[in-house]
Amino acid sequence: MPKPNIVKTFPAMLDLEPGDYTWCACGSCGNQPYADGSGCKGNFEAVRFSIAHAKRYKLCLCKHTKSAPYCDSAHCRL
Ligand code: FES
């Protein structure tokens, strides 16, 4: 099973506005934590998500979360 590229072993803390976003699942896109439009590498698929409320979110950068795109603390077990 292919493994994603670990961008960082901590989440990105981002103040997001309501809207639609696409999270990179492979860890190789050039605009982390987002997908850059070139498509994720390997068998990974970018994850589309919508934000309804403006606030600070923790987006996964280790790419091992089971709650994509949000950090679930999986980075603590890497
Ligand atoms: S940064 Fe990936 S689970 Fe926290």
Assign a percent range to the helix content: under 10%
Shape: globular
Strand order across the biggest sheet? 1-4
Number of helices, counting only DSSP H or I runs of 4 residues or more: 0
Number of strands: 4
Strand content: 25-35%
Q: List the domain count as a whole number.
A: 1
Mean pLDDT: 95
Secondary-structure-based class equals mainly beta
Tell me the Rg in angstroms: 12 Å
Distance between the ends: 16 Å
* Secondary-structure element string: EEEE
Low-confidence stretches: none
Q: Nutshell version of this structure?
A:
By secondary structure, the protein is mostly beta strands. The chain has one domain. It is built from no helices and four strands.
Describe the structure.
The chain has 78 residues and is mainly β. The model has no long low-confidence stretch (mean pLDDT 95). It has a two-stranded antiparallel ribbon. A two-stranded antiparallel sheet has the order 2-3. It has no helices and 4 strands. It has strands spanning 12-16, 19-23, 47-51, 55-59. The protein starts with 11 loop residues before the first strand and ends in a 19-residue tail after the last strand. The chain is globular and about 35 Å long. It has one domain. Bound molecules: FE2/S2 (inorganic) cluster. FE2/S2 (inorganic) cluster (FES) is lined by residues 10-11, 60-62, 64-65, 71-75. FE2/S2 (inorganic) cluster is lined by residues 10-11, 60-62, 64-65, 71-75.
Question: How would you summarize the topology of this molecule?
Answer:
Layout: E1 12-16, E2 19-23, E3 47-51, E4 55-59
Antiparallel strand pairs: 1-4, 2-3
